[in-house]
């Protein structure tokens, strides 16, 4: 392997890592900005109700088009199961 190939391989790995981190930030950052709106809605009886409130809060903050285009809907769909697995922790986060 030549020096040029090694440099190209290193640059490729760095580019893939940077893309991964950028994509990950683009999904989680909007959720962080939406959490205060979600938290203000109320205590929730179930993960399904909490996920619905999270969906409404996301759409209120960002609009339906951006929520669907950024992948937030996929993250929100996972929320119901996460909430149901530990409601006390989520309610503490909400408060």
What does the oligomeric state look like here?
A: single chain
Tell me the major beta sheet. none
Overall residue-averaged pLDDT value: 84
β-sheet strand percentage = under 5%
Q: First CA to last CA: what distance?
A: 57 Å
Low-confidence stretches: none
Order of helices and strands: HHHHH
Helical segment tally?
Answer: 5
Helix content: over 70%
Number of domains: 1
User: Which structural class best describes the helix and strand composition?
Assistant: mainly alpha
Say how many strands there are: 0
What would you call the shape?
Answer: elongated
Description of the structure:
- The structure is a single chain.
- With 95 residues, this protein is mainly α.
- It has one domain.
- Helices cover 88% and strands 0% of the residues.
- The chain has helices at 3-41, 47-62, 64-70, 72-85, 87-94.
- α1 packs across α2, α2 crosses α3 and α2 runs antiparallel to α4 (72-85).
- The relative contact order is 0.13.
Write the layout of secondary structure elements.
Elements: H1 3-41, H2 47-62, H3 64-70, H4 72-85, H5 87-94
Helix pairs in contact: 1-2, 2-3, 2-4, 4-5
Descriptors for this entry?
0% strand, 5 helices, elongated, mainly alpha, 95 residues
